[in-house]
Amino acid sequence: MTAFRALVRKECAVLFASPIAYAVLTTVTVLTSILFFEHLRLYNQQLFLYASSNMGGFDSDTIPDYINLRDTVFYPVMEQLGLTLLLPIPLLTMRVFARERAHGTDELLLTSGVSPATVVAAKFAVTYGFVLLMMAVSFVYPAGAIAQGGLGLSHLLSVFIGLSLLGMGIASIGLVCSALTQSQILAAATTVGLAYLFYDFGWAHTFLGPEAAGLFDALALHDHFARFAEGVVSLADFAYFAALAVAAAGLVRSALEWRRLSG
Amino acid sequence: MTGPLTLIGLILTAFGWASQEALGEVTPFASAQVLVGLAALAAAGLSALVRTGRRAQPALRGPMVGVIIRAAAALVAAGLLYAGAAQVERPIDWTFEGRFTLSEASLAALSDLPEPLVLTLYTDAGDPRIRHTRRLLDAFAAAGRRPGRGPVEIETRALDAYPDDEDFYGIGSSNSVVARVGARWALVDRPREGSLYEAIVSLGHRPERILYAAVGAGEGDLQRTGSEGYSGLGAALEAEGYTLRRLPLAVADAVPGDASGLLVIAPQRPLPDAALSAIERFVDGGGALIAFLEPGTNSGLEGVLAGFGLASPDRWVVDPASLALEGETPGLSPVASNYAQHPSTHGLGDNRMTFFRRARAFELRKAEPDDRLRGVVFTSGDAWTDPAVLGLTPGALPAPPADARLDYHVLVATAEIERGAGRARIAAFGDADIASNRDLRALYNLDLVLNTIHWALEREPAIALHPKSGGRSLNQFPVPLERSLQSLYGAGLLIPELLVLIGGLVWLRQRNA
Question: Which terminus of chain A is more solvent-facing, meaning fewer CB atoms within 10 Å of its CB: N or C?
Fold first, then answer.
């Protein structure tokens, strides 16, 4: 436990000593605020257009179903932010293992008596913690804006839980890529490619049968995080991202052990 | 060999996939590229393994196999974790209006079905509404899997693939649902829980009761549409299994013998004595009476109710806990959240309020010792009744008169009485607007009205909270943009600004180190 704590402290120090962490935090927060405000503005415009006095006012049933906070604000913001996360998170994860390997400090770490499992747990914990911090900071403005309406905060929270899990899912892929190479650029590029591939297997529907397409959909990141945008928090979706983390941690640990054995 | 194979594999796979994406179809060229690319990647992996195994000392080969097995075990554990969780899926509904949490009435409707229910969703590609509807249908399917309820099968069909269905069911657009039970079916063109519930109920077999609605003295009309009409209540009662018949009470001298209940909605003109006597005889004979009164009118029905112990002086309820309605005097539209424990108020409470638009109150005085009188819905404790509030200053709460008694006044009262021929149930509302098309779907008015009628007609098993349908969704409220802009300039941009500042300082420190 002491080794784990020491490693977490060291990882945090390395992470927050790098301007990349702040750049990622800033980018995601600014993008979230601007995207959310822009969609909120459009939503209000549409709502007032349909509810204007010559169309019946707010009490009438003249507002189309599709103009609502979920479909006009939450869902598009979540979709756009989900795709946006495919870029900054690989920048964050690329250095976690690849940098150690490039600098040769991984050998030092693996021969210091700390088990590979502890190393993996510490690095995963810090990376996931950073993703959570990033989404928590991004949540502040949307929550403040929605809270003024008095409703919908739990739904918005569900959206951000989904985004946080998506971020952790991308980070899982990124950590595996980082553990398999010593080139940070290669790690980042592979992460973007793999995460994009796993994001949505809709493209494969054209040449897959319905059963195979269903299987691929079950593996896709998008299907699992999109349900959070609808305000539905499901154990199965949590389990999907937990399974992704378990698989990634297992693969990274094996990669570290393999390197230690193969020299 | 590993490096070149990996490179070839990646390039071929990427180009094959990109070719398929660009053309929008699977060509032999793209398929061959992907297949050869994947084979090259597999060969590269194998080559790497063999090479490492050869290079490794023989003593390390065992542990290396162990590493591979552990990696495979991690993947299997992940798969099992996911598969296991999918089996015990218990979604939590955090939507604004509990959109995917079925109401008690929907669950009860599923229990009443004689055969399995098939819900078929008709779609056009790219219709964004489909995912919500599909999830709602999944909620019905999940409810159908629970013990005691009929199975629910969900189908999704592309409209262009089933043109015959389009004609047969009269489907007008994508996102329509056809509910089928055996050979019977109903089309739902705006699928929400409420509309699906009504379709499912119409396909089930429910014991029907005949409910007569008085007409002829300016009563509320169950066939009249528009905000002043009561057609919404009529439709809801029919969906609940009641057969509705009109009874011209002003000229009738008796309530028909097949009547399970009599509904009298706020007569505007005085009822003849014969009609009042017919009501009394009907109740004395054990019939159920549901009466809606309005302040400022006196049709004689008030006297009949008073005779059974439900006196209602012609005074207006003034409640500071009232809905502010434009153009109305404040205080005259009580929002009730105080309920007695009674079947008619099932599920209602502090956050499930009912809304009355101008009401009178009841005073309960037993006519016979064995009578059971209950106030079931109350105003707030700060309310009073006023004999004449019209003509007061609009926009200002009326001042309490000298004889005002601040109290929890009864807005809805019930009575169970026995006058020889059977035990009768009476329900009396101090306001008729609560059941009108304008207000029936407001807050929990529909639940209160329907459940009170169910109770009066001794249909307690039918009492349930009903799904909401129609009206504006809860998630269509405006978010004040000006304040949102202030939030953006505050938290929305201040936090990134601080982060940039810290990041810049870190970078400067690194550069100077």
Answer: N
In a domain, A158, yes or no: yes
Q: Which of A66, A150, A235 sits opposite B129 (nearest CB)?
A: A66
Q: Report how far apart, in Å, the C-alpha atoms of B292 and of each of B312, B413, B429 are.
A: 11, 11, 5
pLDDT beyond 90 at B149:
no
Q: Is the pLDDT of residue A62 over 70?
A: no
DSSP labels, B386-445: ES--TTSPTTSPPPPPTT---B--EEEEEEEEE-SS-EEEEEEES-SGGGSTTTTTSTTH
Across the interface, do B99 and A231 touch by the CB < 8 Å criterion?
yes
Does residue A41 fall inside a structural domain? no
Give chain A's mean pLDDT: 83
Under an 8 A CB cutoff, do A59 and B472 touch? yes
As given in the structure block, the two tokens for residue A221 are 């990141």
Q: What is the pTM of this model?
A: 0.65
d(CA B11, CA B42): 14
At the topology level, CATH places domain B210-462 in Rossmann fold (3.40.50)
pLDDT of A54 over the 60 cut:
no
3 state SS of B323: coil
Q: What contacts A72, CB < 8 A, 6 or more positions away?
A: A39, A42, A43, A46, A66
**Domain B104-201, CATH class in plain words:** alpha beta
Chain A's closest residue to B132, CA to CA, is A230
Q: Which tokens in the block code for residue A131?
A: 């993703």
In a domain, A232, yes or no: yes
* Whether A144 and B490 lie within 8 Å, measured CB to CB: yes
Only one residue has tokens 């809709």, namely: A202
Task: Give contacts of B504 with chain A, Cβ < 8 Å.
Answer: 19, 22
- CA B8 from chain centre, in angstroms, equals 57
pLDDT digits (tens, 9 = 90+) for B247-297: 998 788 889 989 999 999 999 999 999 999 999 999 999 999 999 999 988
Tens digit of pLDDT for each residue in B232-242? Answer: 999 889 888 89
Per-residue pLDDT at B507 exceeds 70 = yes
Residue count (chain A): 263
% of chain A exceeding 70 in pLDDT: 87
